[in-house]
Amino acid sequence: MSYDVVVIGSGPGGYSAAIRASQYGLKTAIVEKDGKLGGTCLHVGCIPTKALLHTADLWEHVLHSQQEGILCENPRLDLARVLERKNQIVDKHAKGIEFLMKKHRVDWVRGYGRILAPGRVEVSKPDGTKQLLETRNIIIATGSTARMLPGLTPDPERILTNVEILNLSKIPARLAIIGAGAVGVEFASIFSRFGSKVSIFEMLPRLVPLEDEEISQELLRYFRKAGIRCEVNAKVEEVERTEAGVRLRVTLSSGQTEQVEADALLVAIGRRPLTDDIGLENVRVETDRGYIKVDQWQRTSQPGVYAIGDVVAGTPQLAHVATKEGMVAVAHIAGKPVQPLRKDRIPSATYCKPAIASVGLTETQARNAGYRVRVGKFPFVANSMASIEGLHAGFVKVVADERYGEILGVHIIGPHAYELIGEAVAAMEAEATVETMMNAVHAHPTLYEAMGEAFNAVYGLAINA
Q1: Residues 221 and 279 occupy one common structural domain
Q2: Which of 166, 193, 261, 408 is least buried, going by the fewest C-beta atoms within 10 A?
Q3: What are the Cα distances from residue 221, in Å, to 191, 215, 373?
Q4: For residue 363, is it within any domain?
């Protein structure tokens, strides 16, 4: 079978690229080794995790509902039903992607795809047979998998990655987490509210170390207030399974060594690209520690071979980044106009409580880059809608260049931060200035009024703080 485009991998980047290729009139196939479309994001990443976070929010509201005049006697968390709902959401959207493939006449080839040569992809099918696909262009979208500590292997109950923790049969009384990036802090938010005693150990000096320093400080303050133990500058030296769970030997920031007992351990130390056995040795694709090097159009060093998503060197491992890169690759293949991905306009969202979202430079990055920086901050404690929703933690922080009013970055920690960041992304994409956003009318009462106040605060003109 001959195609214009063959996409290997059906995560958000892969399936979006396949649809766009079909919309451009290109004969397209998508290869997926798993039994369902959607990749890590849908099945063991973004979507099921956020389903659990939503349940944790509701459960927390139920436990404290008397504050709003609602009395709930003897509430009970049914974990089996929680997981059933999570799985129903995942299955619904997997079927939705399958429908989209049919709607856009994209051929779904089930099996493991491997590049044999430029323009040739071999698919090892579930029944043991092999199918050869010939194509003018290949898009590698094979994604990533969780990194594991040397010598450890995950299991369903005690040593966990983002995969196993989504299907625990019971809530662990004590949950240890190694790593305080997005995955670590999101699961800390889930299970601490589900009733686990959570401890986080992070090697670097801050929680969410890629975020602005003040965001990290606010999250640390909130987590500790919520009863989550947070140890930064901490190194886990050894992990062993015990009859009751796991035992960690940890060197703390003080230099002291501590033995930590837990019922389960989540290893959240990042992700590695799935590029080991996809046939890269058969084409002239340049790599860096397993990641694939590409140009601004997502082209590899092999003509006709593109790469998008978590396998790409130098871009964040985020679903929306993969999707944008897929749009760029397909547009280039089809000869359509497209703007390459701008790394300074990529929003980041972490769905812990309080939620975190950001775009652009942190304050430190802006100062190090030589900008004359002005900062505006507005706290959610002064926002009416935040008071109504009982979500007072956090703030909006705007980092700007005082010479021209250029918006260099926006950083949010607080209610629905992942939604509010959209205004900042749109403003920066449109090259709006701080003054432009000060003059934009924000509806009252809303959470996004805090955005307008933060822009005004850059010049000391916030009204409510």
Answers
A1: no
A2: 261
A3: 18, 10, 26
A4: yes
For the domain that residue 183 is a member of, what is the CATH number? 3.50.50.60
Is the pTM above the cut of 0.85?
yes
- List C-alpha distances in Å: 289 to 74, 152, 209, 313: 53, 21, 22, 9
Instruction: Say yes or no: 310 and 444 in one domain.
Output: no
Residues 28, 167 within the same domain: no
What DSSP element (H or E) covers 223? helix 213-225
Q: How many residues does the chain have?
A: 465
Measured between alpha carbons, how far is 398 from 410 in angstroms, rounded to an integer? 5
Q: Which residues pair with 259 in a beta bridge?
A: 249
> Among all chains, which residue has been given the structure tokens 């006697």?
73
Instruction: Assess whether 93 carries a catalytic annotation.
Output: no
DSSP summary character for residue 406 = B
11 touches 93 (CB < 8 A): no
Note whether 138 and 10 are same-domain residues.
yes
> CA 399, CA 389: separation in Å to the nearest integer?
27
| Parent domain of 68 | 2-146+272-343
For residues 106 and 118, membership in a common domain is answered with yes
CA-based end-to-end distance of the chain = 65
Q: Is 153 exposed, middle or buried (0-12, 13-18, 19+ CB in 10 A)?
A: exposed
- Tokens found for residue 146: 């969780």
> Are 285 and 300 contacting, i.e. CB atoms less than 8 angstroms apart?
yes
